[in-house]
Amino acid sequence: MRYPQAFVFVKPGTNLPSLENIQVWSQARSVYLPSTSRTNFAMERRIRTMSKLESYLAGPGHRPNREDLFVLHGRVVGSFLTLALGGDLRHVLWVDSAMHMRKLRSLAAMTDLQTEFFYFLRTALGRYEWLQAWLGRETDYGQLSDEPFEKILAAFRVRPALGDLTSMSVVMTGLRRCVRAETRLGIANRIDLQTDERQAA
Q: Half-sphere exposure of residue 167, counting CA atoms within 13 Å on the CB side?
């Protein structure tokens, strides 16, 4: 499939229109529907990358299935298609070229790194608090406080209302903004593109 490509994500369990209807309603040059189209390994690799980025934007606990998306080749996500999907439409993410796809893969790797970092930080915080509580309970040291370490941890502590360590992270906020910008999140008409005749790599 040629570039540019729009990756259209819908809510889990949505009954998607047929491939033929999607192509007519979207005004796309071509459509890749994972559940119906002949398997294309290059497209499946792009889908894995874009699904990872969409999951990162959607937040913890959301992992899109292959059945919850389709890919369009063109510069416009047609109004008939958006009307047909209605409230079931989640996100539209764009890939403009093979070079852009490589950049998005690198960005997806950074989201993995950030997620892994906060997992280990969350684990370290839990272990530290367990050790601190044990020493305060079982020894004569009382309530211990390592001031420099506490100041670092204070910036990352879980807010009870949110229950998510990453909700307070400047790093995560910056990465989210980067993902939104690089994928042209939510744009239905790519008037900034002069041509859609670029070949896929």
A: 10
Q: How many CB atoms lie within 10 A of CB 128?
A: 14
| Joined tokens for residue 134 | 């044990």
Q: How far is Cα 54 from Cα 8, in angstroms, rounded to an integer?
A: 10
Nearest to 172 by CA among 51, 93, 60: 60
Q: For residue 187, give the DSSP letter.
A: -
CA distance 90 to 181: 17
Q: What is the pTM of this model?
A: 0.77
Give the full edge-to-edge strand order of the sheet including 30-32.
30-32, 69-73, 5-10, 89-95
| Size of the chain, expressed as the number of residues it contains | 201
194 has a pLDDT exceeding 60: no
Q: Is the preceding omega at residue 4 within 30 degrees of 0, hence cis?
A: yes
Cα distance between residue 97 and residue 198, in whole Å = 7
Picking from 128, 20, 145, 27, the residue whose alpha carbon sits closest to that of residue 76 is 27
Nearest 5°: phi and psi at 161?
Answer: -70, -25
Q: For the residues 94-105, what does the mean pLDDT come to?
A: 95
Helix, strand, or coil (residue 69): strand
pLDDT band at 124 (very low <50, low <70, confident <90, very high): confident
Q: Quick one: pLDDT band at residue 198, thresholds 50, 70, 90?
A: very low
